[in-house]
Amino acid sequence: MNVKKYFAVILFSVFSVFAFSAELSFFLGDNTDLKFDSEEYSDPTLKQSEAFSALAKIPFNKKGTTFLSLEASLSHSYEKIFGDNSNSENNFIADLNILKFSSIIECSAGKFFLDAGRLFLPDLSQSVFAQSLDGASAQFSASWLDVSVFGGYTGLLNLKNISVLNSGGYVWEPGDEDENDFYDFCAPYIAGGVKISLPYLLLNQTISLEGLGFWDTEGPADPPEDEDNRFYGTLRLDGPLAPMVFYGLSGTASSTDFSDFGFLGRANISLFPDFKSSSVTISASYASGDRGPFVPFIGFTQVTACLSADEPIYSGISKAGLFASIVPIDRLYCAVGGDAVFLDRDDNAFDYYGFQVYGNAKYYLFSDLALTLFASHFAGDSSDSSRTEIALNAVISF
Questions:
Q1: What is the pLDDT of residues 310-349, one digit of tens each?
Q2: Strand stretches in 174-330, DSSP E
Q3: What are the residues facing 380 on neighbouring strands?
Q4: Which listed residue, 25, 95, 197, 287, has the most CB atoms within 10 A of its CB?
């Protein structure tokens, strides 16, 4: 059965049987994005995309504690570099983002949350693992303890929507002969993790621990040719420092053989004044390079560290900056920020890489129609890394 028939059968079966009791919602989006690289404004890169998503929640009991969640999407994108008539690309992507059976079990001690299917699971650091996988997760939640475990497989995901890094920091790609129009299978890994959180342990402070592991294996796509299995451990502290002032502090160690370690550190302090739902955040992050006791930190999911034309990952890089947001009038959200970025190169000091500024405004014309304008500029230490970007996005829900 080919991929298109596979999705058609799933969607028809689910909706025809349970549509009478399902909570359905649909989203239609349009995005126009212009990027100007290397401080050259005559030949921008245009990316025009449209996306349709369908979401459903189908209960199996009267309380709604056992249910099926589904999110399917179909998108099209057109990308072209002006001034290069031969360089244009059309892509159509069909994906089943989420398809999971869930159950909530209550007891005197707390609640159990059980999920099985295609799940989305972000990690504590938000820079190691932030993607879907096919598997199962279980969570126990109480006022004093939160414990969760998960296990799954990445080889059936759509590569066109997910970028996986190998242990060397390069994005995995299939051979040319494996490329398809709508769906390409992702790099096959077995993934597993456990997380423990102790909420409000002392003085309203929360401490969290997480361990992750990734093992390369076989799958429909080519194996990743990555003999190094990867492991990550994260410690996070967060809570209030004073009324309206909160902090977050996390450190993540990475290793392939438990003899050499990479390190990712994050810190932020946020102020939430009682004024028009505003916030101000000071943040800093550091991902180790090949320096001192550390080896380069490499995550699993590709996460871009800054807005430069090079689009580096969190490896051998650090940044510090300020972010502020406000709701000046009803239905309008505005945000602006800036960061100084440094690279950890093979010498005795960090090198200045550039400074980025960015901002966005989101306005709800109606409850089901939103417009977003995003703009950014990265002023690099060289023109090759500089980039200016402007994007306009519209989303309607029904």
A1: 999 999 999 999 999 999 999 999 999 999 999 987 666 6
A2: 189-202, 205-216, 230-242, 245-255, 262-271, 279-287, 317-329
A3: 354
A4: 287
